[in-house]
Amino acid sequence: MGFKTIASTGMLALSATHFASSVVADAPTCPNDTPLSCSTSTEEASCCFNTPGGSLLLTQFWDYDPATGPSDSWTIHGLWPDNCDGTYEEFCDESREYSNITSILQDQGRTELLSYMTKYWKDYSGDDESFWEHEWNKHGTCINTIEPDCYTDYTPQEEVGDYLQKTVDLFKTLNTYKAFADAGIKPSSSKTYTLSEIHDALAAIHDDFAPYVGCDGDYLNEAWYFYYVRGNLITGQYEPSEKLTQSNCPESGIKYMPKSNGQESTCPNRR
Description:
It is built from six helices and nine strands, in the order βββαααβααβαββββ. The protein is α+β, with helices and mostly antiparallel strands. It has a single domain (2-255), classed as Alpha-Beta Complex (Ribonuclease Rh, Chain A). Strands 2, 3, 6, 7 and 8 form a five-stranded antiparallel β-sheet that branches. The two termini are 31 Å apart. Keywords: Disulfide bond, Endonuclease, Hydrolase, Nuclease, Signal.
């Protein structure tokens, strides 16, 4: 199993400058001058160029009532390809929509990944499996650089495990809870924060690019970190980028609530 070689002999595979990705056996060898995704509209889609979904978003949740995931961590929402302008495609390949993510990972021997997902990639209603299926089927199938033709000796569902692993790897580099804590922003049922304070705290872990943050009214509940990628989604070089979507949070009076075990649900819209 592995990716096809794309570049001519002598070209070196791109390594991550801002994010050290997990190396896949026989990773694609892309030309050093491969354009950064979203940097040009003339480059054709290939196993080395993400398009039309050239903006990649690592998205996180803060579900607090009822609480989802550890009390001292945000949780994974997904990894989404957007069309460089805030729009996106969805459910791009019905033939690769699956309803057995757990089995796929077990069959691939990715037990460590599965264990991590059961702790940090949580569904607010408790149905983690359906949540993972939704994220792969809606978003993962729209990433052109991990289509089956980009692999050598392709094994069915191989790209599913790679997509989920990449999502987790990126999530591990973006500790939203710690970034807030380092800036003095801590969950509180009484204190409020400004949008500027929140943006500054999170930009500090994303090369000074503030992510999109989402609110349910005054209550903070989402963060989307934007990237462009040079090369393949799995092995390419990730470059933090400016957000393409403006926050729906108010400029001030934002509440960052502690996680609790209350009965009132404050579930944000699932994309």
